[in-house]
Amino acid sequence: MSSINNNKIFILAGETSGDLIGSHIMKGLKKNNKELFFSGVGGAHMNKQGLKSMYQMNEFNIIGFINTIYNFKKLNKYLNEIVYFILKEKPKAVITIDTKGFSLALAKKLKKTFSDNTYKCPLIHFVPPTIWAYGESRIKKWKNLHDGLFCLFKSEEDIFEQFNIKCSYVGNPIIENFLKYKDNINSKTNKKKYFHNSKNINCLLLPGSRDGEVKYILPEFISLIKNSNVKLRNVNWIIPTTELRYNYIISKIKKYNVSGNARVVVLEENYELLKQADLAVACSGTITLELALFKVPTIAVYKTDFFSAFIGRLLVNFQNVILPNFLLSKNIIPFLFQEKFTNHRITNLLIEYIETIDKKKKDFKDYSSMILKNMIYDKPGRINFSINSSKEINKIINNYNY
Predict the structure, then answer these.
(1) Which of 40, 97, 133, 275 is packed most tightly, with the most Cβ within 10 A?
(2) How far apart are CA 354 and CA 235, in angstroms?
(3) DSSP element (H, E) containing 190
């Protein structure tokens, strides 16, 4: 069948972390076949690897139960258009990354459509549901749905095995990005570039990459900057964000007259900031892992609408929801959720961190080493996400009964 011999791959990522993962997957696949053509949904990283994106990635970047319901009609329209596109283009594989609600709906619809059609192809998914944080009930929906399921954390293999689901660990591009930057930074140059006063404490405020996250978290950060305790007057505030959110955040800090007290930068272009930071307050998510790897003492926060928060309290395991806490099975990063995320609480924690900064930095140095060891990155050359993911994808494609 023509679909076996074509060079088309459909690949979809709906958020910033998935975009990075997708670019590494594409890079690995292109090493074996430079003629591959990628279509689907992605952002800047995947576009650089040659993706022809059907939509803006942020159209799929929706969180919270209210927002999901509100955007149901739009997402269902995209779902139908994507299924039609796949049937027309006949790629030799469909790869989805994270974006769990939409990815699940797409896989289910394609599975049903394939059963009534002469065309079919393997369905492959990276970053399955985080059942260790959001409950076991979600996993049943994913069983026997994909031809390949791949995780980014070594311990997830055993968790999924308990449910008789094969989920393979193939490495982690976030850790590989960290290792890439680790030894290639001129510290003095970067301090002059990013921090005007090197004697001060340098604190990053990371409000998240999704619209909903920034909407609820940024106002608390602005309040923190405006009402800084006297003990925080010597703090350099920097707000790293995505290219998509940059202008919005700039407009907000100007509106509330704190642009003179904080700087906004695009994190993708200034990743080395993480090496120069002394402290961070970050939206719960992948960034907490990156900060822990860079040995930055961190406080995690999250805020959303009332209904989503209520449902979240019923479903979320708050002991595991922060990635470094899950990976090390200990509460190394405090988490302030919803009403606990206030200017007063953040201020008190930051003062406590500053007063014990040397010990905190030593602790996070140890945590960073422990994470690398747990993820099999403590020995050079042991694992490579791009190579491993492309090998597994090609194996699935070559063995698939088209």
Answers:
(1) 97
(2) 10
(3) helix 187-194
Confidence at residue 55, expressed as pLDDT on a 0 to 100 scale: 84
Distances (CA, A) of 160 to 30, 142, 166, 329, 347: 30, 11, 7, 18, 39
Residue 186 phi/psi, 5° resolution?
-90, 100
- Residue at 107: amino acid letter: A
Residue 280's Cβ-count burial label (10 Å; 0-12, 13-18, 19+) is buried
Separation CA 62–CA 40 (nearest Å): 18
Give the Cβ contact number of residue 297 at 10 Å.
Answer: 26
Task: Please name every residue paired with 204 in a beta bridge, in sequence order, or none if there are none.
Answer: 238, 280
State the chain's mean pLDDT as an integer: 86
In angstroms, the CA 29 to CA 387 distance is 8
Q: Report the run of H or E that residue 40 belongs to, with start and end.
A: strand 37-42
* CB hemisphere CA count around 200 (13 angstroms): 17
Question: In this predicted structure, what is the pLDDT of residue 312?
Answer: 67
Q: How far apart are CA 173 and CA 127, in angstroms?
A: 12
Given a contact cutoff of 8 angstroms between Cβ atoms, the answer to whether 158 and 131 are in contact is no
CA distance 110 to 123: 9
Each residue's pLDDT tens digit, 142-164: 888 999 999 999 988 988 888 88
Residue 148 sits at φ, ψ, to 5 deg, of -155, 130
Query: What global pTM score does this model have?
Result: 0.82
Amino acid at 260: G
What is the Cα–Cα distance from 33 to 171, expressed in whole angstroms? Answer: 21
Nearest to 367 by CA among 325, 334, 322: 325
Q: Pull the structure tokens for residue 242.
A: 């995505």
